[in-house]
Write a structure and sequence with these properties.
By secondary structure, this protein is an alpha+beta fold. The protein contains two helices and eight strands. The N terminus is likely disordered.
């Protein structure tokens, strides 16, 4: 686990555990090259002055073309490369939102049932977050 030095800058990356009908959305990276072909929870960096929930909504609109509603923060925080840390929020599509499509940094999306969850090669840093999400998963959001 990466430790931050006191006073070090910390940049939060929000990931979306986007749930629908007992399924979780996974997104396959197309860039950068060292991450391409691996799967992640979609999301991105929180901008200065932005609340994590607002960043999540913005990132899902930019990356997937959807209108999503954050539901709650998944307990925990996972280190990425310094100074980034991952925080995950459960979310759902708002009524009337178009279905997700890969617009930015992804080339494929899959809705995974609980039984299919580990059928994709997740990015190493997303594995503990996905485990935490599934530990709290309550079926049919």
């Amino acid at each position: 686990m990466t430790r931050m030095t006191p006073g070090a800058e910390r940049i939060v990356v929000v990931g979306a555990a986007l749930l629908d009908g007992g399924r979780l959305l996974a997104a396959r990276r197309s860039a950068p090259a060292d991450l391409a072909g691996r799967w992640e929870l979609p999301g991105g960096k929180v901008e200065a002055g932005e609340r994590p929930e607002d960043a999540l909504v913005r990132e899902l609109r930019e990356e997937l073309g959807v209108d999503a509603e954050p539901l709650g923060r998944v307990p925990g925080e996972w280190p990425l490369r310094t100074p980034y840390v991952l925080q995950v929020w459960t979310a759902r599509l708002r009524p009337g939102s178009p279905g997700p499509r890969p617009l930015e940094d992804h080339d494929e999306l899959r809705w995974l049932t609980r039984a299919e969850l580990w059928d994709v090669p997740w990015l190493d840093q997303d594995v503990p977050a996905v485990r935490e999400v599934t530990a709290r998963w309550r079926g049919g959001v």
